Amino acid sequence: MAAQETVDQKYVYDFSEGNKDLKDLLGGKGANLAEMTNLGLPVPPGFTITTEACQAYLATGREPDGLAGQIEAHLESLERAMGKRLGDPQDPLLVSVRSGAKFSMPGMMETVLNVGLNDQSVQGLARQASGEGSQAASGGADRFAWDSYRRLIQMFGKTVCEVPGEEFEHALDEAKRAKGTQNDLDLDADDLRGLVGAYKKIFLKHTGREFPQQPREQLDLAIRAVFESWNAERAVLYRRQERIPADLGTAVNVVTMVFGNLGPDSGTGVAFTRDPASGAQGIYGDYLANAQGEDVVAGIRNTVPLQELEQLDKTSYDELLGIMARLEEHYKDLCDIEFTIERGKLWMLQTRVGKRTAAAAFVIAGQLVDEGLIDLDEALHRVNGAQLAQLMFPRFQLDHEFQPVAKGIGASPGAASGTVVFTSARAVELAAEGKSVILVRRETNPDDLNGMIAAKGILTSRGGKTSHAAVVARGMGKTCVSGADEIEVNVPAKRFTVAGQTVNEGDVVSIDGTTGKVYLGEVPVMPSEVVQYFEGSLDPEHIDNALVRAVHRIMTHADGKRRLAVRTNADTGADAARARRFGAEGIGLCRTEHMFLGDRRELVERLILARAEGEREAALAALLPLQRADFEEIFREMDGLPVTVRLIDPPLHEFLPPLEQLAVNVAVAQERGEDVAKEEALLAAVRRMHEENPMLGLRGVRLGLVIPGLFAMQVRAIAEAAVSCARGGGVAKPEIMVPLVGAVQELETVRAEAEKIIAEVVGDSGVEVLIGTMIEVPRAALTAGQIAEAAEFFSFGTNDLTQMAWGFSRDDVEGAFFWRYLELGIFGISPFESIDRDGVGRLVRIAAEEGRAARPGLKLGICGEHGGDPDSVHFFHEVGLDYVSCSPFRVPVARLEAGRAVVETGGSDSR
Ligand code: ADP
Ligand code: MG
Ligand code: MG
């Protein structure tokens, strides 16, 4: 959407005409320069060319009508105000040309300083500097002028004309070498004049033209280069990744130069109004005497801590502190600033609300509330779930000489060290001995679940962010590095090799699930204080920890604000207990499939293989007490809170041995003449059940309808567990959830049978059992009105819903093509990570509306990974769901975001 060009459109704003709320039009830098100007702070005069001018230029390839005239007019008034003309040979006005988009963006053109200098005006600048100079003798003034000129050619050449920067650097190094010095301050006027000559040659060589001597031409070329840098390759890539719209364009700021390189009483610096790392109050900054802006960041010379400016120039220092306090009060936030001192006079060149670490974000928000600058709603708005999640992971202390040996995908964050194991069984064994283990596999599958639960961390050599290992580990809040393909895993030999080294079972490795890095040996880990707080082992009222206190305060406020309840996905009593400590208000998804693995496998095989009625019933009867015990444990932990139990969902073949392996075993055994009747029966069953697309095959409610007694056994186990809980004085609130329903008839069939069992079991115990369904098949969403007739609740299974709405298999797509889709910007983030509002979200909306229309009071929730994703939580709030359910570790994140969603929509209830 390029800007409309109209005849008298205003493209240029004087700093006095703008303000901080005009970031769309003036860019962040321009809007804040205007704001500071209007606050009466010392900002060198200047003007801003709007993002609309840039959009028009990019759309048509030429400056829009009227722009040149407006620039001319603003330049003239600047010249009048300063009493100088741009590039005047006697007394030149010089300006900087600075890009500045709404969001700061690496890859775009940087700044060109000293525009207006040429072979004549460099002399005029020197004369003026010596004339009015306090400390700069005429030698110093000459030096200053030539230094400024060489900087112009360097910056202009590099950023406007794409001359390779190293060429200028080499020439500068050469000049220093010739002088026998490391320090650019030792180069005198003659050296710098010589350098200007060398720079001009470099410029000519690369551009085929002389360095432009016309000041106005320099200005126009620089402005145009800023416009064009919007579409530089690096900028385009960055925008795609960060989901910054491609049509915003950048503004251009033209600012009167002030000089920090005029001698020892001049200089330049950057500062933060608080520590951006910890949030601690105080002055944090760097200062460099006798330098121009870019030297500070370029690290040409060593800067000094800003505090030392007090000795060098007390007046400026005090003024600066006053301005910083003023800015904090005005922006009500941490600000970062750029400033320059020209011969004892302070100038402000930039400010913005500064970036900060996750810890600092919480601490600062808390402090600002204490200081009365913001209220708790605003504090809540200023932090986010991603930051909270970051604060919950343990971290490596990497101040030692640890070097990573491999780098994979940071699939599930955290830091874990432990003994390497290659099988699930070994992981369970060692964990039982109290050892920390890292489960290393090429890739994981559902059979590794027990090992994954036992392990501290999971390392795979294959698979991406949506691989089994990654998804399951994230769900458990367990550290995982996936796809570390430099690692050669050899499971039978119990070792892996990487970078020429062999790591055997029993050796120790450390994995960082945030960075994806793998280290040999044990890297020390720091536990997260925030988790200790959530676990209840740090009392915020009684410890001196600014972070924990801030987190406590903001979380408490979020809980008071939010409308969404937060439940957890938990399959074991231990998970349930932890999630409860983290604030979960129930279980939104208790999967029952892991209850069929391990020792119980054999029973499942019998169940599946059963030919005669009696056999199946025997298997089910054996499973019943085991299931009941599972549920009892969970109901106990969740006493008084609702627990949604999902009936068995995955394709049955997942519980059987892999086809190929079984076929080989049977063949070998037959060869040896062994009795293989049992194995043959198993093989036949596995063959019979083999599916090309298991995720679209016999699973979910379909299984329940095909295998007699299976769902009935589960329903009975749930009801009996609830009753036994109630008899023991507890309160169990089971909600039975039927997976993969697409038609109301499926649900009705299951329901009819379940209701009979429940009535029989529950009797007069007072236990109430709800029956509802997952909404995870698109057809279910589209017929939600019908389905609601048979369901007391809906729980959106957004993982399957995403998979089926898009028509791609979650286990396959990431490795196959997601990277390309992300690169092309087809989606900015995987739809499995954050809900696709337009497509999948629309299905959720339809189902919520039509379900509630058919059955007012229908309970609506979501389980699935989106329940813990900040953006998705906001969406579910907007749609009006009753709760989100997520992994225990994500519960605090969801609580925080559910509170933020209320603050951000002004508390409106969108139902
Ligand atoms: P960035 O966005 O990369 O920070 P800036 O436009 O802020 O780029 O410019 C970088 C530095 O150049 C500033 O911090 C400042 O020190 C210096 N600078 C920019 N404009 C001027 C000016 N008009 N006078 C003096 N120094 C300037
Ligand atoms: Mg800057
Ligand atoms: Mg599902």
Q: How would you sum up this structure, described in words?
A:
The structure is a single chain. An eight-stranded mixed beta sheet has the order 14-24-23-16-17-18-19-15. The chain contains 35 helices and 33 strands. The radius of gyration is 34 Å and the shape is elongated. By secondary structure, the protein is an alpha/beta fold. It binds adenosine-5'-diphosphate and magnesium ion (MG) (2 copies). One magnesium ion (MG) binds near residues 649, 776 and 797. One magnesium ion (MG) binds near residues 739 and 799.
Q: Distance between termini?
A: 33 Å
Strand proportion = 15-25%
Shape: elongated
Mean pLDDT: 91
Q: Tally the beta strands.
A: 33
Outline the biggest β-sheet: 8 strands, mixed
Low-confidence segments, ≥5 residues, pLDDT <50?
Answer: 907-911
Largest sheet: spatial strand order:
14-24-23-16-17-18-19-15
List of distinct ligands in this structure = adenosine-5'-diphosphate, magnesium ion
Q: Find the structural class using helix and strand composition.
A: alpha/beta
The helix content is 40-55%
Features:
911 residues; eight-stranded mixed β-sheet; 17% strand; elongated; binds magnesium ion
Summarize the structure.
The protein is α/β, with parallel strands linked by helices and 911 residues long. The protein contains 35 helices and 33 strands. The strands form seven sheets. It has an eight-stranded mixed beta sheet. An eight-stranded parallel beta barrel has the order 26-27-28-29-30-31-32-33, surrounded by seven helices.
